[in-house]
Design brief:
Layout (H helix, E strand, L loop, with lengths): L1 H25 L4 H21 L5 H22 L3 H4 L3 H9 L3 H13 L4 H24 L4 H6 L1 H15 L5 H25 L8 H25 L4 H12 L5 H9 L3 H27 L1
Length: 291
């Protein structure tokens, strides 16, 4: 068991370490790469994964419902704790409720649980993003951003992939190969980019970072265990849900906090120190998934 966890975590840590060492030496600007990953590579992965197999949407309803409960209940629990942490609720609640499913969750899910768990993880990514850009942005800014959600390539890649899956259409071979090539870039590049962010950890806000970075995954894991005990979920769904629960806060929370001028430094500390703490929480999630 522990050997398998080590085999899952080692390649992740290697790529994150490469990104950190490279950034320390070169000081690169990964903003363009990150945008390419989100706008091109991730939609390609979503489309190719969903369109290549038949997805039973009815079987995903309890799974996505459990994810929704995790997000909403986590937010409700941490809301009254925001004053103790010294962070405004508008910044604290979305940051702790939404995990970094793309750059961290997908690689861990794929390596720990295999390709079968990738489909529920991708559906979870799109669903949680929809919650984030409506309720999450609504809490931070005072109004939800439905326009950004509708413009998201992730949404349209999901809908197109589900259409191909339902109709059992095959992707023409001339298109399948380039889509697969673009998809294969995503996971290693996102891990390297995440490692590069560690050189910017705002240690001045270390207390807030430790509180938020530990509190979010702890609460979400507890809720996920309760949901798994109550709902009839498939093994790959249970594993994907546990990995999601253990994730550090999504990096986009910092971008939103900076955009809306809501304690951006504290949010950055929670996000970045939370990613360091994920070295503790993610092995716990993998252990629970494989147990």
């Amino acid at each position: 068991m522990f050997l398998k966890i080590g085999l899952v975590m080692f390649p992740l840590l290697t790529l994150v370490g490469m990104g950190f060492l490279y950034a320390r030496r070169v000081q690169p600007d990964f903003s363009g790469v990150n945008r390419l990953c989100v706008d091109v590579c991730l939609p390609a992965l979503i489309f190719s994964s969903l369109s290549s197999k038949h997805v039973d949407l009815g079987a995903q309803v309890p799974f996505l419902g459990a994810a929704t409960v995790i997000v909403l209940l986590c937010g409700a629990i941490v809301w009254p704790l925001s004053r103790w942490a010294g962070v405004a609720p508008r910044a604290f609640v979305p940051t702790l409720a939404i995990g970094n499913l793309g750059p961290v969750g997908l690689p861990v899910t794929l390596l720990a649980l295999g390709p079968d768990a990738l489909t529920p993880a991708l559906l979870l990514l799109v669903w949680v993003n929809a919650i984030h850009f409506t309720l999450g942005v609504g809490i931070m800014s005072g109004k939800p951003d439905f326009i950004s959600m509708l413009k998201s390539p992730l949404l349209w890649a999901t809908l197109l992939g589900m259409l191909f899956s339902a109709q059992r259409w095959a992707i023409p071979e001339a298109l399948a190969l380039p889509i697969q090539m673009v998809s294969s870039i995503l996971i290693p590049m996102m891990l390297i980019s995440m490692g590069a962010r560690f050189i910017h950890v705002p240690w001045r806000a270390w207390r807030v970072g430790l509180i938020g970075g530990a509190l979010g995954p702890s609460v979400r894991i507890a809720i996920a265990i309760a949901c798994i005990s109550l709902l009839p979920l498939a093994p790959e769904q249970r594993g994907a849900l546990l990995v999601f629960a253990a994730l550090p806060s999504a990096i986009i929370n910092f971008l939103l906090a900076d955009k809306f001028r809501i304690e951006a430094e504290n949010v950055a500390a929670i996000v970045l120190i939370g990613h360091l703490l994920s070295l503790v929480f993610l092995p716990i999630a993998v252990y629970l998934s494989l147990a």
